Amino acid sequence: MPAGDGPVIRLENVHKTYDLGEIQVHALRGVSLEIKRGEFVAVMGASGSGKSTLMNILGCLDRPTKGRYFLDGTDVSQFSKVELARIRNRKLGFVFQQFNLLSRTSALENVELPTVYAGIPQAEREKRARESLERVGLSDRADHHPSQLSGGQQQRVAIARALVNLDILQRLNDEEGLTVVIVTHEADISLYGKRALEFRDGRIKRDSLTQKRLIAKDVLPTLPALSDSDEEEDTPATASAPDKAPAD
Ligand code: ADP
Ligand code: MG
After folding, report:
1. Which secondary-structure segment (H or E) carries 33?
2. Which residue lies with its CA nearest to atom 27 of ligand 1?
3. Which of 148, 149, 157, 183 has a C-alpha 20 to 30 A away from that of 41?
């Protein structure tokens, strides 16, 4: 993003209230926040704490009820839907990740999927996906659909996918200076970021720098090379999928 040296994201006392007629839900209750260019921020917090509402606003998918949002210096808090869509296309990228593996899609493609959004060339995508499947001991299952895999194997595919995903985000951040904001339920996933924000009841409860940042491409080779004979229903792993909690 070209403009100036100011923060990429600045929220000033942002509130979001969902009006359900009878009741009003105060999803964000006065959030002020600055994120600078090149930061990698993990947003955490219990279900219902306001993470998705925040991300919708940051992502220009929704507007604050009150307060201001400056995106790269531009106050977008009163933008129309069309204006939001335009700035979204120019300045923002999204990776949506679901807990469930896509059922009609091979293990390999499931792992590759996030890299499609990141615009990485096909050969490179496949290479990275194969490597990470190998790390979790599933290279011979690359072509299997989730229904052809055990619960533990499916979980390992999800771990492989999560690490590929994190690796890409870290590379975009480190090598291209892209600003990254992720949402996660998992404290260990927040360790891949440089800064962690914890939400509670629509407010920022904690804002801290990550002490020992984990690097996905270094963690991948340290995963225990699981084999099916090792497998139990809850396969232990050194990394957990960021998306294993119910989608929110
Ligand atoms: P999180 O992502 O942390 O689980 P959300 O931002 O989804 O939290 O939700 C925050 C609060 O706002 C919750 O109480 C939730 O029920 C409510 N909420 C979220 N989206 C809507 C909506 N579209 N309409 C009404 N209430 C909503
Ligand atoms: Mg949510």
Report:
1. strand 24-35
2. 18
3. 157
Q: Are strands 195-200 and 24-35 parallel, antiparallel or unpaired?
A: unpaired
| Residue 225 DSSP code | -
Angstrom distance (rounded) from CA 78 to CA 177: 28
Regarding the beta carbon of 184 and ligand 1, being less than 6 Å apart is answered no
- Cα of 16 vs centre of ligand 1, distance in Å, is 10
| Maximum separation of any 2 CA atoms in the chain, in Å | 58
Residue 155 burial (CB count, 10 A):
21
Q: Which CATH class is domain 7-104+145-231?
A: alpha beta
Specify the pTM.
Answer: 0.82
The predicted-structure confidence for 40-78, as pLDDT tens digits, reads as follows 999 999 999 999 999 999 999 999 999 999 999 999 999
> Quick check: CB of 53 below 6 Å from ligand 1?
yes
